[in-house]
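Predict structure. Chain length: 319.
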Amino acid sequence: MAVFTPLTETQVADFLAQFDAGSLVSLEGVPAGTENSTFFVTTDRRELVLTLFEQGEHEELPFFVDLLDYLDEHRLPVPGPLHDRDGVALHSLAGKPALLFPRLPGRHPRHPNLAQCRALGDALGHMHKVSQRFPGHRPNPRDLHWLLPMHHKVLVYLSPEDQTLMKDEVETYQGFFGDAPALPQGALHGDLFRDNTLFEGDRLGGLIDFYNGCTGDLLFDLAIVINDWATEPDGRLNVERHDALLGAYQVRRPLTAAERDAWPMMLRMTALRYWLSRLLVVFVDPPAHDLTPHDPEQFRSILLARLEHGALPLPEVNA
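Prediction complete.
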């Protein structure tokens, strides 16, 4: 259960009174998620999502508000937070930071089809194109600078073969990205897995859960997406989904020559990023709540597949 801080209807009704969003009709806790308390709120005028922030750096929440406001203004399918009658979005409820969002339509695609991959690629390309002008700044908390110190914390829990694999990979990334040309920068989602999207059939209803949002290499964001959306259970890439997503993405934002050169290495580095972060949750820093951690083995398999088979050819952009 992901409602870590229960709320009463009276608390939520009083909270809603600060907004021009109608009167409370019903309140429902959402049994999903791993970090925050989430509620579906129905008023006499609309469907909303209320989030209480249980963990993380609360001083960074204004960055997320500004990013969602910015993307909403540029007509991306994101849940732009509601602002109260004084123009304030971020509030406190039950002693926790709280934000209110519109409830976007759709469901998570467990097995995305090609139309859904194209819709996501189009939206992500649009987002990355406009996000290059986003004025906010939050360094990527899971990039190479994080991998360097953090991978040492899990080595003792790994087999000798996996210790060597992880150490060799991190050393390889240092050498490659240390000498590589600078890559295009912008605001990232940072965790755009299938369960952070909503679809109604083939139509993308929303990109959600921006709490890993940051600024950094746009290619990092794209590699996370491909490693989830276009990967088979054995870790190998699916050509059709890969090409559908990347083809639609590049209509919006063609990759640069430097990004094309860095692409195979970025696929490997983002696979290791999730292998490592999941190992840390299992062995070093378990969740504060009674939740089942994600399996690290999934991304170890993806990394091994990227090493064995390499990256697929990138789709060309029609002139």
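Summary: The longest strand covers residues 37-43.
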